[in-house]
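Tokens in:
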């Protein structure tokens, strides 16, 4: 099957490309860089394209059957905003898919996407989902919780703090819950979609098998790393005040008020539809850590 992947050089993209290539698909990888760092076989074609450039997308989707759309941002910069990159960028992808007769669009959204979400990130993800659902193209939307694994951003950041600092910062009370999903589990499911008719026109949440308090995630990481560290609790109001200042002087800021809103809300999924459609055994958090950290 001829498959195009946007965001192929990102964390999820790199893992997905490797899996799709291993399944024998004919791949076209979109990158805004001329020489992206993507490890692929000789069967993969890398093309320069940008979600902000409709013409480049139309060229990239010629003779394509399935598009995986993975491009997104977690924080806004001076050039890239949620409205421009997430919403308008995806609208450009949809238009190019329709123009070139793409049969299937697979979109990576986020758990917590909602029209009335507290965070701008989640509200724009919802707007984008709506555009995908109303596109007239057969679609599958995935809403993952926090994705972790080798090369990620979130767990890798916590590991660095635990290794380097005597006290591990915890924002707020640390009781908010996350449901981290191992990258291997997410990729295994996503790679099945092109041949899975049950997943057509479905919005599927995916998280790990455990809903864990942030404090529990820290404790598990310390145990796996064999590090004894205390915790430094940082009041949420103080972090929001600091984030407001940082947002005025840095783009992207190291932490934003929008990210704090997402953290405060937690990130829990309902895996019931996932397990109805796919035969997947979700990996426990500590088991996955032991697998790729040792």
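Residues out:
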């Amino acid at each position: 099957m001829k498959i195009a992947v946007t965001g192929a050089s990102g964390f999820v993209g790199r893992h997905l490309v490797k899996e799709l290539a291993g399944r024998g698909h004919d791949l076209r990888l979109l990158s805004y860089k001329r020489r992206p760092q993507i490890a692929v076989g000789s069967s993969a074609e890398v093309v320069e394209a940008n979600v902000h450039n409709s013409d480049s997308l139309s060229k990239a989707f010629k003779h394509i059957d399935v598009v995986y759309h993975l491009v997104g941002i977690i924080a806004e910069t001076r050039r890239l905003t949620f409205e421009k990159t997430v919403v308008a960028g995806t609208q450009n992808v949809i238009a190019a898919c329709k123009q070139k007769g793409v049969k299937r669009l697979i979109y990576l959204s986020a758990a917590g996407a909602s029209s009335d979400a507290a965070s701008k990130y989640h509200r724009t993800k919802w707007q984008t989902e709506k555009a995908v659902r109303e596109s007239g193209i057969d679609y599958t939307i995935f809403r993952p919780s926090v994705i972790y694994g080798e090369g990620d951003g979130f767990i890798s950041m916590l590991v660095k703090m635990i290794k380097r600092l005597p006290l591990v910062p915890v924002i707020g009370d640390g009781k908010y819950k996350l449901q981290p999903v191992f990258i291997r589990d997410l990729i295994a499911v996503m790679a099945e979609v092109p041949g899975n008719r049950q997943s057509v026109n479905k919005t599927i949440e995916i998280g790990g098998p455990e809903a864990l308090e942030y404090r529990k995630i820290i404790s598990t990481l310390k145990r796996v790393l064999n590090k004894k560290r205390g915790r430094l609790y940082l009041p949420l109001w103080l972090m929001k005040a600091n984030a407001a200042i940082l947002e005025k002087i840095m783009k992207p800021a190291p932490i934003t008020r929008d990210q704090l809103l997402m953290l405060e809300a937690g990130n829990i999924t309902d895996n019931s539809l996932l397990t109805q459609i796919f035969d997947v055994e979700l990996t426990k958090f500590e088991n996955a850590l032991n697998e790729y950290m040792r």
